[in-house]
TrEMBL record:
UniProt key word Transmembrane helix: yes
The organism of origin for this protein: Pseudoxanthomonas indica
Keywords per UniProt: Cell membrane, Glycosyltransferase, Lipopolysaccharide biosynthesis, Membrane, Transferase, Transmembrane, Transmembrane helix
GO biological process, one term: lipopolysaccharide biosynthetic process
Ranges for domain Glycosyltransferase 2-like: 9-170
GO function terms (MF aspect): undecaprenyl-phosphate 4-deoxy-4-formamido-L-arabinose transferase activity
Protein name, as recorded: Dolichol-phosphate mannosyltransferase
Length: 242
C-alpha cells in the first residue's frame, strides 16, 4: 500500500498518451517498489482521447497511483506544478508521459542525491544518447547552446523530462508557462546548486509528439529573455530571527 507520507512522488504530465500510460506505470512500479516509499501522480492535461479513463481503470490495479485531471488544457508546466502541489513526498521525480524517459533512472538520480550536498536541490537528467530525429537533436543542441550562453546555468540538457528535485524548493520558484524548461537556471537563481546526471533515452513507441521545432523556437526566444531578466532582478539575503 502507498505510505501516507511517501518519501518520493513521481509526477507525470500527459496529453493524449492513452497507449503509453499502462506500460509506463508498470515500469515505474517495477523500478521503485521495494526501493523507496513512493506515489505516482499523473496529471491529465484535458486529453482528447481516453487517457483519463485508462488512468482511472489503472487505479484499481496500482495502489500507488493518483490521477488529477485539468478541466481545460493548460500545458506541461501547469500540469507539473499542479502535480507537485498535490504531491505528498518531500522529493519529486518527473517523467515525460511519452515513455522516452526510463523510470529505472530514477534510482540513479536518488543515488546522486544521497551522495550530494544539502545545497543541491535539483538533479537533472542528461540525455547523452538522444533517440529523437536528426532535426530534433540539431534543434536541441542549438537551443541548449543559446540558453547556456544567455543564462550561464552550466546545464547540458534542460529539456530532459526526468528530474529529481525538492518539492519545497520547486514551489518557491517563480511560476510561468514553460518554466519546466528552465529549472536549473531558476534553482540557481534561488541560491541552490544543481547537478546533471547522464540518463537513458528511448524511442517513442506509441502516440505522436506534441511539439515541433518551430513552435519551441518561437516560444523559447521569448522565455529566454524573460528568465534572463528574472536572473538580473534577483536578490537574495540570509535571514535570522531575533
Amino acid at each position: 500500500m502507498t505510505a501516507a507520507q511517501p518519501q518520493l512522488s513521481v509526477v507525470v504530465p500527459v496529453f493524449n498518451e492513452r497507449d503509453n500510460v499502462a506500460p509506463l506505470v508498470n515500469e515505474i512500479t517495477a523500478a521503485l517498489r521495494g526501493v523507496v516509499d513512493f506515489e505516482i501522480v499523473y496529471v491529465d492535461d484535458h486529453s482528447r482521447d481516453d487517457t483519463a479513463a485508462v488512468l482511472q481503470a489503472l487505479k484499481a490495479q496500482v495502489p500507488e497511483l493518483r490521477v488529477l485531471h485539468h478541466v481545460q488544457q493548460s500545458g506541461q508546466s501547469t500540469a507539473i506544478r499542479n502535480g507537485v502541489k498535490a504531491a505528498r513526498g518531500a522529493w519529486i521525480a518527473t517523467l515525460d508521459g511519452d515513455g522516452q524517459n526510463d523510470p529505472a533512472d530514477i534510482s540513479k538520480l536518488i543515488a546522486a542525491r544521497d551522495g550530494g550536498g544539502v545545497q543541491t536541490k535539483l538533479y537533472a537528467g542528461w540525455r547523452v544518447n538522444r533517440q529523437d530525429s536528426g532535426s530534433k537533436r540539431w534543434a536541441s543542441r542549438w537551443a541548449n547552446a543559446i540558453r547556456s550562453r544567455m543564462l550561464r546555468d552550466d546545464t547540458p540538457d534542460t529539456g530532459c523530462g526526468i528530474k529529481l528535485f525538492e518539492r519545497e524548493a520547486f514551489l518557491d520558484l517563480p511560476y510561468f508557462d514553460h518554466m519546466h524548461r528552465y529549472l536549473p537556471a531558476l534553482m540557481q537563481r534561488a541560491g541552490w546548486q544543481t547537478v546533471s546526471v547522464p540518463v537513458h533515452h528511448r524511442h517513442r513507441t506509441a502516440g505522436v509528439s506534441k511539439y515541433n521545432n518551430l513552435n519551441r523556437a518561437l516560444v523559447g526566444i521569448r522565455d529566454l529573455r524573460g528568465v534572463a531578466w528574472l536572473i538580473t532582478r534577483s536578490k537574495r539575503t540570509a535571514v535570522r530571527e531575533l
